[in-house]
Amino acid sequence: MDKEKQVSSSREQFSSSFGLIATAIGSAVGLGNIWRFPYIVGQYGGGAFLVVYLAMVAVIGVPIMVAEFIIGREGRRDAINSYKVLAPKSHWYFGGITGVLAAFFILAFYGVVAGWTLEYIILAITNGFSGQSSGDIVNIFTNFISNPIKPIIYQIIIMLITCGVVSTGVQKGVEKAAKFLIPLLVIIMVVLNIYAFMLPGGEAGFEFLFKPDFSKLTKEGVLAALGHAFFSLSLGVSIMITYGSYIPSKENLLGTAVKVSISDTVIALLSGIAIFPAVFAFGIEPTSGPGLVFMSLPNVFAKMSGGYIFGILFFSLLGLAAITSTISLLETIVAYLTDTFKFRRKNAAIFATVVITLIGMVASLSNGPLKDIVIAGDNIFDFLDNTTANYFLPITAFISVIFVGWKLNKDIVKGQFTNNGEINSQTSYEIFKFLIRYIVPVGIIIVFLFQIGKI
Ligand code: PHE
């Protein structure tokens, strides 16, 4: 048997369709939906941004997810090596390198924010929100993130947990956790949504979120919508390539991508509905940035009946949703290190965790003692957040669609899309092909040209 076949036949696979979907949703759903989505919507003007975002998910996000799955399931390796076996002696694997690097930098700041949720779980348990004015709640947040030590301790805890799970192997831990956590998260969100509808003064929040005012949409907003679609769906980070390599051949790649994208979007919308009415009812600036969730929802918990329990549950679930995403980020890097350098899984996980945690510490300190270090107008934390989402992810995703659309043998692509003719109609294949060959790449290029002011 040749070496390639051996690698692919001994590779771990997802144990069931539900396990696959749950794991992919576990990666997609996380801080991106609940922490990042609302503050990005807030910064870029609300409803009009939302319309652009939804279009980006449907037209650009879904086809890219399918393309990434195809690369992974055909290559049956980590992202970089999948490119290498599918296009030997070429430079396409660069698309894997930018993805793995993106995962690396995202995990650095993402681990910090995941750590914030731990402080908020403790605050919720110790009844830290009740009796506080909305001004106090803002101060609690700003004092906390600028503290040089506390957020770093929490970040280290999150990174250790992530490292522990990834070291023991993907499926059992991640699949199981995701299957249980995501439904629970949805239930909590729905309850918070019902509360949002009853919040006096909350109407302005609904209007902000759902009434598009296109005069508020900026060029940066369009790029941010694209970047956030990638971030939220975990695209352009080599994750869906890596997970694709664990997908059994009978699964429907298009169906999986559609289900993951719809779930991810629904959770983002539920989170917007939970947050914006509170933002307006309690006089918080929608443009407050990364602190938005932490500054708005505690007000709700302080006042709603049962708020004590809901506060604890909400932040616990947020932390857990974050961990299913940190695991996917670390897994991508570890898959690369083990496949390429034959590192032991555990050693690879420890090595990557140490380096990433150190970078994350600097990001955390940039909200406090290092805040005067500014790169392109942002502190280090925001710089990592914005640069990865708006540049690394679109570029990596761009390479993957060009690869699948133009380079990879058409029979392979069609075979993967239709499971060798068993599923998905010819028409859906033609639409997919048209999207990844023309619409998606041209769309990404237009957004960039628009951003740099060329159109
Ligand atoms: N999609 C995850 C979220 O929304 C974040 C993430 C980005 C995870 C990129 C993996 C890769 O929270």
Structural features, described:
- With 455 residues, the protein is mainly alpha-helical.
- The chain has helices spanning 3-10, 17-28, 31-43, 47-75, 79-86, 94-125, 134-146, 150-167, 170-198, 203-210, 219-232, 239-244, 253-281, 292-303, 307-341, 345-365, 380-407, 410-418, 426-451, and strands spanning 374-375, 378-379.
- The chain has a two-stranded antiparallel ribbon with strand order 1-2.
- The longest helix has 35 residues, at 307-341.
- It is globular and about 65 Å long.
- The model is unreliable at 1-9 (pLDDT under 50).
Strand content: under 5%
Q: Tally the helices: what do you get?
A: 19
**What structural class do helix, strand and pairing data support?**
mainly alpha
Q: Which consecutive residue ranges, at least 5 long each, have pLDDT under 50?
A: 1-9
| Strands ordered across the widest β-sheet | 1-2
Span between termini? 54 Å
The kinds of small molecule bound in this structure are: phenylalanine
Query: How is the main sheet built?
Result: 2 strands, antiparallel
Shape: globular
Number of strands: 2
Structural descriptors:
455 residues, two-stranded antiparallel ribbon, 19 helices, disordered N terminus, binds phenylalanine
